[in-house]
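Lab notebook: predicted structure, single chain.

Context: the supervisor wants predicted structures on file for every construct in the current expression panel, including those that have not yet been purified. This is the next one on the list. No modifications to the sequence; it matches the entry in the shared construct table.
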Amino acid sequence: MSDRYQPKPEHKFSFGLWTVGSVGRDPFGEPVRERLSPVDLVYLLAEVGAWGVNFHDNDLVPIDATPAERDRIVADFKKALRDTGLVVPMATTNLFSDPVFKDGAFTSNDPRVRAYALQKTMRAIDLGVELGAKIYVFWGGREGVETDAAKNPVEALKRMREALNFLCEYVIDQGYDLKFALEAKPNEPRGDIYLATTGHMLAFIETLDHPEMVGVNPEVAHEHMAGLNFLHAIAQAWEAGKLFHIDLNDQAFGRYDQDFRFGSWNLKSAFFLVKFLEDVGYEGPRHFDAHAYRTEDYEGVKEFARGCMRTYLILKEKAEQWNSDPEIRALLEEINADDGSTDMFKGRYTPEKAAALKMASFDRVALGKRGLAYERLDQLTIEILLGVR
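Prediction complete. Output recorded below exactly as produced.
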């Protein structure tokens, strides 16, 4: 492999224990890989060149572990982090696997389940902070319904809001240096999941008591499941100052949650995503929430992890080439040309601007005839991606 595509700590590439630790089980098949311990997975990630490792509470500590078992597991994990130099940038809570959460966690109709979910999350936050996490992600995998006869969606949103407000206050009370990131998904494993897209989440955040503490963690696959443009979701989150974390993978539009290796399906979409993140100077982790094919052994899992990082770095280089290409730059200048004739109308509204604009004359026919050269611009993009330019 070319050295320039080797991951380095400054790239901030991270993986979850649940990603490289996936045993390949699916709804139609049993596991195809043995389960590795969290410590083994830390060493695997260090071997492939990752910078960080993230986890759900029960990826690390089993849900039924005793306090003594919990302390031993965490001590072993800390030693592996020290040995390898990996960091824990993000943590989260598993509020979807155990049967207790079959009707949701924070939105469950049972108040005892809602209280247990808060307890479990507070303990998981403590664990994440203990291991160095600065971002805490909330994915509401069971926060939804199969039938709207089951729940009032307004009540569900109120319950979700109450839970997040409670947890924000808990973090403040503990003095933790921690921010929350909400992760949207339209469906699966529930028929419909509340707050289905990044746009839903951004609107919801503004209703919280501490919106400054809460951002989003958009995932490629989840927006693509809804048939949406992931770049546009990322741009909206960035413009709002809410892009706290990101999940990178790949996905065919409209399919189940496939979690493919980053860039392995929609290469042009992946290119524009990488270009955007690099152009705006996103400084957060580049977290890969994806899984190796079920066909792979652990050597294949390592190739999967290396491939995610390598593809990102290749696309980063392609983005730099795109930005510096003389013909592309000339086309962009032409497309965005501004002769200054509308300067008087720009900026905030004033009665004078409105009056002047109402009186202005525009050659509608000429404007409609103007070619914008987007075909050429897109073809040049394709040629860069295909390596012929």
